[in-house]
Amino acid sequence: DFLFFWGAVFLVTTTLVAFLKKENQELIPAKEETKGITDTYKLLFSIIKMPAVLTFCLLILTSKVGFSAADAVTGLKLVEEGVPKEHLALLAVPMVPLQIILPLVISKYTAGPQPLNTFYKAMPYRLLLGLEFAFLVWWAPKVKHEGGFPVYYYAAVVLSYALHQITLYSMYVAIMAFNAKVSDPLIGGTYMTLLNTVSNLGGNWPSTVALWLVDPLTVKECAGAQGHTCATAAAMEV
After folding, report:
1. Whose CB among 32, 140, 151, 174 lies 3.0–4.6 Å from 118's, allowing a Cys bridge?
2. Which of 225, 166, 187, 178 lies closest to 40 in space, CA to CA?
3. Which distant-in-sequence residues (6+ apart) come within 8 Å of 84 by Cβ?
4. Is residue 23 scored above 80 in pLDDT?
5. What is the mean pLDDT of residues 35-47?
6. Cα three-residue angle 138-157-215, rounded to 5 degrees
7. Is 147's pLDDT higher than 90?
8. What is the largest CA-CA distance in the chain?
9. Contact, 79 vs 85, CB < 8 A?
């Protein structure tokens, strides 16, 4: 019902925009940015060949490796330790107002000539929060009781998530501000799309690798089966 309702709202809203919103003909530039798909990709290739852009892309593609495991695996491990999924979902509700307010606050610090300074300053704190998340996973079985988990444990999780959101949005808004600042206005849409795509890819591939490495890096012990390590799927089945 939830998905159906918002799906209907989405369809109605976008349909109304399509039929009722008109382009301002006076503001349309006389010369188009590109003439077609081929020209667009040629333009993207010429942009990415520039030394400064290439260096920035390498930076942004590798900058999120350090906290990929904490971001991707923490929630799954908490569920594995017995924290109910519906409780974790409810903990996301207090984050919504924070997610709305944070960009407004952080944008004041990224509006200057060096928006990436905020990115650099937030990085060590986000790395430290990875250790905090590891502690939460380790702590979960220690405080678990028959009725579930105590309120103070959930409070610690909410506080950790809130601090994580602050560092995450500090880095995200800083990157968006930087991309907007360095993009050539003549090809702004194409330029920003390229940089934002690279930025998104830089966050996605480390999380995928982290999830893939969970099984190989997890130490398992077999109860009552000497000589088996349970390291592989076949051994676990045995």
Report:
1. 174
2. 187
3. 148
4. no
5. 81
6. 40
7. no
8. 79
9. yes
